[in-house]
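#lab-general

N.A. 3:47 PM
ok so I finally got the sequence cleaned up, no stray characters, all 268 residues accounted for. can someone with queue access submit it? mine expired

B.Y. 3:52 PM
send it over

N.A. 3:53 PM
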Amino acid sequence: MNDLPGGQITSEPLNPNNKPLNQLTQLPENGINPFVLMFIVIVIVTVLTYILPAGQYERIEKDGRSVVDPASFEFVESTPVGLLEMFSSIHAGMIEGASIILFVFLFGGALGIMQATGALDSFIKFVAVRFGTKEKLLIPLMVLIFASLGTLIGSAEDALVYIAIIVPMTIALGFDALTGFAIVILGTLATGFISGITNPFNVGVAQSIAELPMYSGMGLRIALLAVFYVVTVLYIYFHAMKVKRNPELGSMGNSGVKNMHTLIKTLG
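B.Y. 4:20 PM
back already:
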């Protein structure tokens, strides 16, 4: 049992700022609803049908795929979309893209289940505690984990919650807050998501639209992942070592963490 400010008692482990970790890793749910945003885009595009001239490309069969002929563009008579047509286009679009929508739902649902059960949280906390005092292994290992989340299951902005765990750890090891931030963001996005070995969003959906075999070209993306991984690890490692030699060069933030043993007790 731990005391919170105001006399409250919690059984959750406390972080250095005296907040339970489950509160620390929750981001505020601010911003526009995604369905509202999509509807606004539909309205804007509908209005543009009255403003922009209409044109089209011819499609040709090439290697068993229907592709656009880049030299075939021509202007055609405009057919502005009416109010009723705007609403019916939502239904028609869902029918046309049913296979892609189902694909995204399945992968998104699987990722949601892993997050809801706490499986990802527990795994990352376990690795953080297990290798927290092995600074030479921590950076490449944590970058590999976040890169795997990005390249295999398309993890992106949902990885932001782990910054609250990794940043105090890197500070406790004598690095800085920027090192922890880079491990999460560069590992997930600049290394994993961008290479997308089996990323269902930037590869699976795109290849479905382009009528390419699902996850074709995987060898090239694996090679890209390896290159991005090495570059990212070296970049973060050199920065971390520079800060460790001269802490004045680092950005420490306000985590309040003083040593690794305190942080391990907090996470454990």
